[in-house]
Design a protein that fits this description.
Elements lengths: L38 E5 L3 H13 L3 E5 L2 H10 L4 E5 L7 H10 L7 E6 L4 H10 L3 E4 L4 H26 L9 H18 L3 E8 L2 H8 L1 H17 L6 E6 L2 E7 L3 H16 L3 E3 L2 E3 L3 E7 L7 H17 L5 E3 L13 H5 L8 H4 L1 E2 L4 E2 L4 H9 L5 E5 L5 E6 H7 L20 E3 L4 H10 L4 E6 L2 E7 H14 L15 H26 L7 H25 L1 H15 L4
Parallel strand pairs: 1-2, 1-3, 3-4, 4-5, 11-12, 14-15, 17-18
Antiparallel strand pairs: 6-8, 6-11, 7-8, 9-10, 13-19, 15-16, 18-19
Helix pairs in contact: 2-3, 3-4, 7-8, 16-18, 17-18, 18-19
Length: 571
């Protein structure tokens, strides 16, 4: 119980939501964002005290809840979490001190600023209250002016905390929410859509060739483009929709109670408006286009990540189909890719290729028991920036990168720590017989740069974006229609090219064997011999690519000419 001492009648003619009149000491302390009044939960076992405190707080503009004991208070907080908790210290059952402790253990949507009413004034009691989770104390008998002043001070803390949270959830460049906030909204709206059978559609948007803007005009110009796109996106979404900056030049929009067809129409309007967006950089007009993928929630869509992934697959197809377009997930075939025309199927660089055909062999793997010093020495003496880690049986246990090592450099005793302590255990891996097209699709959709190729959990190699880029470059080289030998201007016939391919393959094997013997030799300086051997291997590889074009010219060169003449419209 507590006692109230009123030095003067408490009256307030200030309407809720307005500022305190000049000179007033009892003005309201409302939600700093100008929304609903701040909620206060008052807990006391004396009904008279509850009524008096509620009257003071209501007159000052607060929204007041009441609880007669600690159990009722915890139930009220669970139903509708207040911003302030005012509790008496001495109560039967759960005391105010214990109530503070339990509130701090709850997972609440925001911080609850707690004031304790008490006649205790010794340091030991103050320390006990603070340790239990109290933020402030009001000494009995309570004076309304002091109580309201302490609430206003607490409101400033709550406002600061709310602004910090908002800042952490909002992209400062576009003013749109960030990715982490989107998934919170997605969980809520997905559950509601599943419960009531409502449509819910996700749209993923990516700005086309945005890197060129940064490269040609600088990052300040790129920021200006992102800011303009963010404003356009905010203007084109309903209050019930949710748009966020997903990362880089990618945006994600949650369209509530909208099916895929209507979402496609909305996305088409947005795409057209973005293409007409008046952006002038360094005195030059800049045309921005965007690719979008839209996907509606399906009956088997159980998580927010699954819905975003469907839209991301549609976006990937939109980008591969020429960009500046909108693709519906429902328009994709069962494999999630658009069918290729006959000429483009002939030119498909992935045709018949599996992961083991394109992987970089895992020549060396670190062991879980290796130290960070040994790992650092390996990275310093190699040209890789990440490597698989194997367990005692030689099976894949994870991946470790230079970045992982750098993050641990300043840790005491880092040199003696084991690789297993810092490696990434959740490594993305594919079986060596996985179609290469599947891995290409995956690396296009995610931020990862590499995947590990395995056979029964044994690491066989790694496929990186660089590996795929090298594959494309070699494929284009092999697809040149010249069909000429390296030293001749005369076209090579198919049978001759096949014979040369066989001879070149034998030469490659011999050169590789000579290189191996050289590495095992006694020479102290291996560099000159290795450089020469590598040059010879590179020349032989170039010959292989050239001869393969002639040996299989009907497949590549004819299709290439058809596509260039207009037969490749299916791209």
């Amino acid at each position: 119980m507590c006692n109230l001492a009123f030095s003067a009648p408490v009256q307030s003619t200030v309407p809720i939501g307005c500022c305190c009149p000049p000179g007033s000491r009892l003005g309201p302390s409302l939600n700093p964002n100008g929304l609903d009044p701040m909620q206060v939960l008052v807990v006391d076992d004396d009904p008279a005290i509850l009524r008096l405190l509620s009257k003071v707080l209501s007159s000052a503009g607060y929204q007041v809840q009441q609880a007669a004991d600690g159990i009722s208070a915890l139930e009220a907080i669970g139903r509708d979490c207040p911003y302030f908790l005012i509790t008496d210290w001495d109560m039967p059952g759960i005391t105010g001190l214990e109530l503070c402790r339990r509130v701090r253990q709850l997972d609440l949507p925001h911080y609850v600023h707690t004031l304790m009413l008490t006649a205790r004034s010794c340091n030991a009691d103050a320390i006990a209250g603070l340790e239990a989770g109290a933020d402030d104390f009001v000494i009995k008998p309570v004076r309304p002016e002091e109580l309201l002043a302490r609430l206003r001070a607490g409101a400033r803390i709550i406002d600061l905390e709310r602004r910090l949270v908002e800042s952490a959830r909002t992209d400062p460049l576009t003013g749109l929410p960030l990715k982490r906030t989107l998934h919170e909204q997605l969980e809520r709206h997905l559950a509601r859509a599943q419960r009531h059978g409502l449509p819910l559609t996700c749209a993923m948007m990516d700005l086309d060739y945005f890197k060129r803007v940064n490269d040609e005009f600088g990052h300040a110009a790129g920021d200006e483009v992102l800011r303009a796109v963010g404003q356009k996106l905010a203007c084109n979404t309903r209050q019930s929709d949710y748009a966020c900056r997903y990362g880089g030049e990618e945006f994600c929009i949650l369209l509530t109670q909208m099916d895929e067809d209507r979402a496609w129409e909305w996305a088409e309007r947005l795409r057209a408006e973005l293409a007409e967006l008046p952006i002038v950089i360094q005195g030059r007009p800049l045309r921005i286009t965007a690719s979008l993928g839209v996907a509606q929630r399906r009956d088997d869509t159980c998580t927010p990540e699954q819905l975003v992934d469907l839209a991301d697959q549609a976006l990937l197809v939109a980008k591969r189909s020429g960009r500046n377009r909108v693709t519906r997930f429902s328009s994709l075939d069962e494999n999630g890719i658009l069918p290729l025309t006959e000429s483009w199927q002939a030119r498909d660089p992935f045709k018949g290729l599996l992961a083991r055909h394109a992987m970089a062999p895992a020549v060396i793997c670190l062991r879980e028991t290796d130290t960070l010093e040994q790992a650092a020495e390996y990275f310093l003496n190699s040209r890789v920036n990440s490597v698989p880690v194997v367990d005692a049986d030689g099976k894949l246990a994870g991946m470790v990168s230079e970045r992982d090592l750098i993050a641990e450099m300043l840790t005491p005793g880092a040199r003696c720590r084991l690789v297993s302590e810092i490696m990434t255990a959740e490594t993305v891996c594919f079986d060596e017989d996985t179609p290469l097209r599947t891995i290409y699709d995956f690396l296009c959709r995610v931020t990862l740069h590499r995947v590990v190729i395995v056979r029964d959990r044994w690491p066989r190699g790694v496929i990186t974006r660089s590996c795929l880029l090298r594959l494309f470059n070699n494929w284009l080289t092999a697809g040149q229609p010249s069909g000429q030998g390296p030293l001749s201007s005369k076209p090579i016939d198919c049978s001759t090219a096949r014979q040369w391919l066989r001879e070149t393959t034998v030469a490659l094997s011999e050169q590789a064997a000579r290189t191996q013997r050289y590495c095992e030799g006694p020479d102290a300086d291996l560099v000159p011999g290795i450089v020469a051997a590598a040059a010879g291997l590179q020349e032989l590889i170039n010959d292989l690519l050239t001869y393969s074009s002639a040996a299989h010219g009907s497949l590549y060169t004819t299709a290439a000419r058809m596509a260039d003449a207009g037969g490749g419209q299916g791209e």
